[in-house]
Amino acid sequence: MLKNILKILKAIFVTFLVLIFIGFLFEQIARFYFDSKRPDNSEFTNIDGRNIHYKKLGNGSCTIIFESGLGGDYLHWQEIQKKLSGKYTTIAYDKAGILWSDPSKETSLKRYATDLEALLKQTNCPKPYILVGHSFGGITPRLFIKKNEKDMAGIVFVDVSHPKQLEKSSEALKNSVQPPPRMFLSFLNEIGVIRILYSNTAFTAAVPKTHWFNQNVKNYFYRIFDGMMTELENDEKLMKEAAEMHDFGSIPLTIITAKYPDGVEGAKDKNLEKEYLNVHNTLQTDLLQLSFNSTQVFAEKSGHYITLEEPDLISNEIEKLAPR
To answer: What range does the domain containing 230 cover?
Structure first.
């Protein structure tokens, strides 16, 4: 009996190893294929020895800068960018360690500001600037905004993070949004499990599974993962730094806030969902204090991904701030 049990366990173990090997091989082949679609060299610039990828469209007299959220890449803005590039210079980019941009050893608002300043200079983007940030993109550009205050024509924050949102949240709420350990996720990523997961389940239900956004996450999560986890692991540090930049003077500022008509995606505990929305709404209103010239607009039909659900709303608010 014991020998039979050991044989079964051995067979299960060998099968498990074979499946891991097949998954790893599948993932490497997929990566080889998607790496072959790397953008042209003309879309890269070198900053401190690192290649930074960007997409610049249009040649207007002011520049609209798109700042993505946690783990977000330049494609997040493609619909809005294409629409506005007929009138304005627009630039979206991959932050360090995200998609096509090389990682950096430093994670700080100083590095984000230095990277963005160098990018704008090297790509000859004209002043003034309108900065548009989504989610964590309301944290990462704060030092850049402060340093370049005189060159800012406006700011549009799209359902952005607030520096005090962790401080204002209960431990239960913070724990509910924490991902599994990085090492475990990395293992799943390397053996193709993440790719299979997002082949069968949409990254966000805000848009259909076949939408380009969900397809991009499925195809390129392996190029987003490390940069996203680095930002996530440094979120408290970055938020603390961002809290020091709490006065943008009279820069025109528009806060676009999601109304979450269908609730918070992925929320299973109604009490935690209620807490999240209370904290979120309170802090979104508090963001108005960043400027003497601020206004709040509500995205009535959207959850967090207003960029995907109501892109025209964002485009219209950007145009209201553009110099005439």
So the answer is: 42-177+220-321
